[in-house]
Write a structure and sequence with these properties.
The chain is of the alpha+beta class. It contains four helices and 18 strands. It has helices at residues 25-33, 71-83, 178-186, 224-236; strands at residues 2-8, 11-17, 43-48, 55-61, 66-67, 94-98, 101-110, 113-120, 144-148, 151-159, 163-168, 196-204, 207-214, 218-220, 243-248, 251-256, 264-268, 270-276. The mean pLDDT is 96.
Length: 279
Amino acid sequence: MKFKKMHGAGNDYVFVDARNKTRDWPKVAAAISDRHKGIGSDGLIILLPSEKADVRMQMFNADGSEGEMCGNGIRCFVRFALDVNALKLSDRPVRVETGAGIVPVTPLWNGEVMTRASVSMGPPRLVPADIPLVVEGKGPVVDHELEIAGHKIVFTGVSMGNPHAVTFIDIDVDDYPLHEIGPIVESHSMFPNKVNFEIVNVLSRHRLKVRVWERGSGLTQACGTGACAVVVAARLKGLVSDNVTIDLPGGSLDIQWPGDGNVIMEGPVEESFDGDWRG
């Protein structure tokens, strides 16, 4: 099975053209993602035909669970689709069908190479039932307190097609025990579909430093939907301007959100290597 490994700001995925393939994709995803016995990645993304968009993206986390959307993955997905001739070059944005709906992606070029992309991520979902989040009221859920393993978590709930709990902290995010707290937050009963957990340092009104515990994948170098959710949460709290750079362990993403409407994300696209998976 031919594959290509790519990453956006260190958030790495294996990409497979599945238009003429039938496999147990959750099982394949778990095997491929294993960093000791597989290729090693944060998950698997497969390319499928779409009846309502240009192409369809289906993504699986490293544990084999299916995710609705991946902001870093979708940028790489469009370059992959171009590489395997599933798309033709055009001036208009590429419409990608995802588990969170149809997402427009605009390739950005350095000469003849697609090195970045701008993604219209859609509007954030702030109603608790739409995140989903088990709390009373219609939302938005800002600075909700949760006691976990002796730690008081004060979070803001946002969905960017998948659920996020965002918390702003004073200590450096590098010193926070995210590897211990992340999995507990992810599986808390307040989040019926589990949740991605972001911890944030406010560096200025234009820059935030972030680490992420991703649902189904654990600690990752970056998270596109998470970066968007962080900016939405920060904007709701009046902490940032409309244009924000998010510094993640694997690189930086640029996010625009004026307080309503669509969130726009721009970030890098990089190819690692390709090969033939025989697992």
